[in-house]
Amino acid sequence: MWSDRETTIDLLNVEHLVTAITGTVTRGHLRPLTLGVFGDWGSGKSSVISMAKQRVEQDHPNILCVYFNGWLFEGYEDAKAAILGTILDELADKRKAKEKARD
Question: Would the pTM of this model clear 0.85, i.e. be above it?
Answer without folding.
Answer: no
